[in-house]
Design goal:
Helix content is 48%, strand content 11%. The protein is of the alpha/beta class and 320 residues long. It has a 7-stranded mixed sheet with strand order 3-2-1-4-6-5-7, with helices on both faces. Helix 2 links the parallel strand 2 and strand 3 (59-63).
Amino acid sequence: MIDNKKTIAVIIPCYKVTRHVMKVIDAMPELVTCIYAVDDCCPENSGAYILEKNKDPRVKVLFNEKNKGVGGAVMTGYREAIKDNMYIAVKVDGDGQMNPALIPDFIEPIVCGEADYTKGNRFYNLEEIHQMPKIRLFGNAVLSLMNKLSSGYWDIFDPTNGYTAIHTDVLKKMPFSKISERYFFESDMLFRLNTLRAKVVDIPMDAHYDDEESQLKITKIIGDFFLKNIKNTYKRIFYNYFLRDMSLASIELVLGLLLLLFGTCYGLFHWVNSAQEGIVTPTGTVMLAVLPIVIGVQLILSFLAYDIENVPRRRIHKKS
């Protein structure tokens, strides 16, 4: 049961969405307390357009002096929600792809103390995902796998899904100045949430594609996402397994990488040397290369199993 005394803010980043944004605003359920429409230096002057067309007293238009990207626009709304003492901040795109009627589903786990952050997952209903373009379906699957490793949330999927809700107590702990402001925003948020040990829950939702044109091009961003996910993976593992705490998993990872590196280098060296001299590599030499590789892989897999079980499972916000 959602308490109607809880103040719910909805943030709508606005950039080239004038064709759909008023329909999104009109569809907002009554439980929403405030709607922040953020004009991210939009060439269509979406902020002025909303001020002209809007009749909903809950709407507050915010303006970014320069284009900051979807993440920058959302964080502008987050700051305003914190300033206005909102309880939960929900992010909904202005292009009509996200149904505002689902907002109760997103905020209920937070209100009930079951999550700090909720996000949409368009992959739950196998009968509905056929609407998603094939290239985007493949791209999201690849990005989801990379994000599982970099964020540490192995039990969630669809990391680029921007339909989210977060408790403002958690927002106050987030380092806004360090979070990526562009399309990597949602993935970077998950990495930052893991460093706080916040609990994240997926919310099933259907994919919806009409005549709107998505600004996210998987083929253009997947390389950039790969590099940023590698960086976040390194930082997360260092923070969680060496800086904050050390465990058997820390030893397994180090020892596994060293054995894998030794076996690979030793084996390549002798393979090249044997090929140049035209001689057969002795069985003992082969085993001396293979054994460290096998043991190293086993230790790394053991570390991954521990990491999967180490997903944050307790909320960090204070339940009122």
